[in-house]
């Protein structure tokens, strides 16, 4: 981004840095070296915890000192290190000892320490604490840290493998959730909180930088709108929110668009000021306030300088392009780019939306499991225990998901898949447990298929020649439907692709008195290569393939015939599976179906995104959201996806829903 003469684009620019002096040294030095004029506006600073939080923090430090292998402590900020060191050296827990000395016995016993980034690692090492895990720069955030975290040891220790996670009171649950999904037990405590700067008792005493102006928050707000600032380095979501607080009252829960398009709204940072966010969460916080920000590639000083240079270059070019002397004069009757000029404009004209209520979470429950078991080919997905399944259902309700589709993983298989029908079978037990846990707060859905329960892995029973016997299978489907309805399922999902399955199931339900139990028919289900990871998820014993009952990927007319038959037999909703490789069929079915249409983003489609993101080839969050939006745009009313909980959390973040 530098001109050919070597001068930095930052030369002469006044840059507002939203950090306290102790945390701004490296960035200030780099800005000065680039010819910029840095100004500090700390806005907030870290302060110690008190009361119940202080007691919990003390308990954590004592527990850490007595721990060892196979446990970890995850440290996500330099402030956390300072809070730990201050507590220990003050005699709070360590009788005046230093942090490294306090932890030395635990470290000798195998306690492992992880740091989120280089600044945190440097702070730990400065206090005599070695770092055993440091994510690469592109993963130096909570989400990235969870992604590179090792799997817990499965045996050989008396105590459950635990990650101790001291953090800010403002910290998001991203890391804790990610580690829990990987099978770790996580202990979270508050180590410090953020208070308005200057505070009476900061974690780090004030240490002004030579000759550096330091503005109060009120002055920073004034100077931003006076034209005295060229760039802002926004270092946390809470900082940008605090800067905005007096200028913009709290918005009602829900629609960001309505807030930002309200008459008279003034963003806390004018459009003429370039803003760089230290990471994606801070960029999102800016976007909610109507501020267009550029996110640095990672939180390092080099990355911030690089992003500030890029933002300065873009701002200069835009300002020149907007002047009468340089503005183009092409006479165009319509300019589509007018509707893409800002996040708020793009949101206003967006044609397709993704809401948590449109998402259905598929889950697996393993018979007899005491703890969740990771599925290696589907990173982030587990075979649940009954307890963790109920927890996942409760979380799905809290996130506003539309449905919770349960697949059973039994330990005993037989030729007829009797566990599917059995009252004490794992799937029917799970349906009862989840329905008792969540009631009618979410649609409890059951996969109705024999493949997980048969010793041959097929979706139906076999005749004496080893072929799937369609009509004999239908009788079992009818029994299973009644059993699942009795167990509490709101919706049944017959996925076996047997001819006549919907009609048989509907008749059985009605005759048993379950006229309100709905049928989500897997009407358009192809014999896809992308089911691979699912086989591991359900411990499938299949040999061969399912091409005699699932459809040929080459066929379209056949799919429409299947749709018509299922509708005639009484399907309440219909499914297209897979989704991403068959978006044309999602569109086709949506155009012809008089009932709601679902599409299933299947295991292989999920794992492709996970693998590409893990290798750094794609932006994981953007790719997930784009993939789900594409399925919705193709016409699906609802989407079954293993990304459902993450996508729902992102929606809540982006829309200001607590």
From TrEMBL:
<dbReference type="Pfam" id="PF02602">
    <property type="entry name" value="HEM4"/>
</dbReference>
<dbReference type="GO" id="GO:0004655">
    <property type="term" value="F:porphobilinogen synthase activity"/>
</dbReference>
<dbReference type="InterPro" id="IPR036108">
    <property type="entry name" value="4pyrrol_syn_uPrphyn_synt_sf"/>
</dbReference>
<comment type="subunit">
    <text>Homooctamer.</text>
</comment>
<dbReference type="GO" id="GO:0006782">
    <property type="term" value="P:protoporphyrinogen IX biosynthetic process"/>
</dbReference>
<feature type="domain" description="Tetrapyrrole biosynthesis uroporphyrinogen III synthase">
    <location>
        <begin position="26"/>
        <end position="306"/>
    </location>
</feature>
<dbReference type="GO" id="GO:0008270">
    <property type="term" value="F:zinc ion binding"/>
</dbReference>
<dbReference type="GO" id="GO:0004852">
    <property type="term" value="F:uroporphyrinogen-III synthase activity"/>
</dbReference>
<dbReference type="InterPro" id="IPR013785">
    <property type="entry name" value="Aldolase_TIM"/>
</dbReference>
<dbReference type="InterPro" id="IPR030656">
    <property type="entry name" value="ALAD_AS"/>
</dbReference>
<keyword id="KW-0350">Heme biosynthesis</keyword>
<comment type="similarity">
    <text>Belongs to the ALAD family.</text>
</comment>
<feature type="region of interest" description="Disordered">
    <location>
        <begin position="312"/>
        <end position="333"/>
    </location>
</feature>
<protein>
    <recommendedName>
        <fullName>Delta-aminolevulinic acid dehydratase</fullName>
        <ecNumber>4.2.1.24</ecNumber>
    </recommendedName>
</protein>
<comment type="function">
    <text>Catalyzes an early step in the biosynthesis of tetrapyrroles. Binds two molecules of 5-aminolevulinate per subunit, each at a distinct site, and catalyzes their condensation to form porphobilinogen.</text>
</comment>
<comment type="pathway">
    <text>Porphyrin-containing compound metabolism; protoporphyrin-IX biosynthesis; coproporphyrinogen-III from 5-aminolevulinate: step 1/4.</text>
</comment>
<dbReference type="InterPro" id="IPR003754">
    <property type="entry name" value="4pyrrol_synth_uPrphyn_synth"/>
</dbReference>
<keyword id="KW-0456">Lyase</keyword>
<dbReference type="Pfam" id="PF00490">
    <property type="entry name" value="ALAD"/>
</dbReference>
<keyword id="KW-0627">Porphyrin biosynthesis</keyword>
<feature type="compositionally biased region" description="Polar residues">
    <location>
        <begin position="313"/>
        <end position="323"/>
    </location>
</feature>
<dbReference type="InterPro" id="IPR001731">
    <property type="entry name" value="ALAD"/>
</dbReference>
<dbReference type="GO" id="GO:0005829">
    <property type="term" value="C:cytosol"/>
</dbReference>
């Amino acid at each position: 981004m530098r001109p050919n003469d070597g001068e930095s684009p930052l030369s002469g620019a006044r840059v507002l840095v939203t950090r306290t002096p102790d945390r701004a040294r490296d960035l200030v030095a780099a800005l000065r070296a680039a010819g910029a004029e840095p100004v500090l506006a700390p806005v907030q600073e870290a302060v110690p915890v008190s009361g119940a939080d202080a007691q919990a923090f003390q308990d954590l430090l004592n527990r850490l000192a007595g721990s060892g292998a196979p446990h970890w402590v995850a440290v996500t900020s330099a402030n956390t290190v300072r809070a730990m060191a201050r507590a220990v050296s003050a005699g709070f827990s360590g009788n005046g000892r230093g942090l490294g000395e306090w932890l030395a016995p635990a470290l000798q016993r195998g306690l492992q320490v992880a740091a989120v980034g280089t600044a945190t690692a440097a702070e730990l090492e400065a206090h005599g604490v070695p770092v055993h895990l440091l994510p690469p720069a592109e993963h130096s955030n909570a989400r990235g840290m969870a992604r590179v975290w090792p799997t817990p040891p499965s045996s050989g220790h008396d105590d459950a493998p635990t990650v101790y996670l001291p953090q800010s009171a403002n910290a998001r649950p991203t890391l804790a959730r990610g580690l829990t999904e990987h099978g770790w037990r996580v202990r979270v405590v508050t180590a410090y909180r953020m208070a308005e700067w200057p505070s009476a008792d900061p974690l780090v005493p004030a240490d002004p930088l030579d000759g550096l102006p330091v503005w109060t928050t009120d002055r920073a707000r004034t100077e931003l709108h006076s034209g005295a600032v060229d760039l802002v380095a926004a270092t946390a979501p809470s900082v940008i929110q605090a800067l905005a607080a007096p200028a913009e009252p709290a918005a009602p829960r829900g629609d960001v668009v309505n807030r930002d398009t309200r008459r008279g709204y003034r963003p806390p940072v004018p459009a003429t000021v370039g803003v760089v966010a230290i990471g994606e969460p801070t960029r999102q916080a800016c976007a909610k306030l109507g501020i267009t920000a550029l996110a640095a590639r990672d939180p390092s000083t080099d990355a911030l300088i690089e992003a500030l240079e890029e933002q300065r270059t873009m701002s200069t070019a835009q300002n020149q392009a907007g002047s009468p002397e340089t503005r183009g004069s092409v006479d165009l009757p319509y300019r589509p780019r007018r509707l893409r000029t800002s996040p708020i404009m793009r949101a206003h004209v967006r044609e397709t939306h993704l809401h948590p209520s449109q998402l259905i979470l598929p889950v697996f429950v393993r018979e007899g499991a005491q703890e969740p078991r990771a599925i290696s080919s589907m990173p982030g997905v587990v075979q649940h225990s009954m307890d963790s399944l109920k927890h996942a259902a409760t979380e799905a309700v809290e996130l506003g998901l539309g449905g919770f589709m349960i697949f059973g993983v039994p330990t005993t298989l037989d030729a007829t898949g009797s566990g599917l029908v059995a009252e004490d079978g794992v799937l029917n037990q799970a349906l009862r447990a989840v329905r008792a846990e969540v009631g009618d707060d979410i649609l409890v859905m059951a996969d109705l298929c024999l493949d997980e329960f048969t010793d041959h892995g097929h979706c139906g029973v076999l005749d004496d020649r080893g072929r799937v016997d369609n009509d004999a299978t239908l009788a079992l489907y009818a029994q299973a439907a009644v059993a699942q309805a009795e167990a509490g399922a709101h919706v049944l999902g017959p996925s076996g692709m047997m001819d006549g399955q919907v009609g048989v199931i509907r008749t059985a339900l009605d005759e048993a008195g379950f006229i309100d139990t709905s049928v989500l028919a897997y009407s358009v289900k192809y014999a896809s290569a992308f089911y691979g990871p699912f086989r591991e998820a359900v411990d499938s014993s299949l040999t061969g393939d399912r091409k005699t009952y699932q459809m040929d990927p080459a066929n379209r007319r056949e799919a429409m015939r299947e749709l018509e038959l299922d509708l005639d037999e009484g399907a309440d909703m219909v499914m297209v599976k897979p989704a991403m490789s068959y978006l044309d069929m999602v569109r086709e079915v949506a155009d012809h179906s008089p009932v709601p249409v679902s599409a299933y983003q299947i295991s292989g489609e999920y794992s492709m995104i996970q693998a590409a993101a893990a290798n750094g080839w794609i932006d994981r969050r953007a790719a997930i959201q784009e993939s789900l939006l594409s399925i919705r745009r193709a016409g699906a009313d609802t989407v079954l996806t293993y990304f459902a909980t993450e996508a729902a959390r992102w929606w809540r973040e982006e829309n200001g829903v607590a």
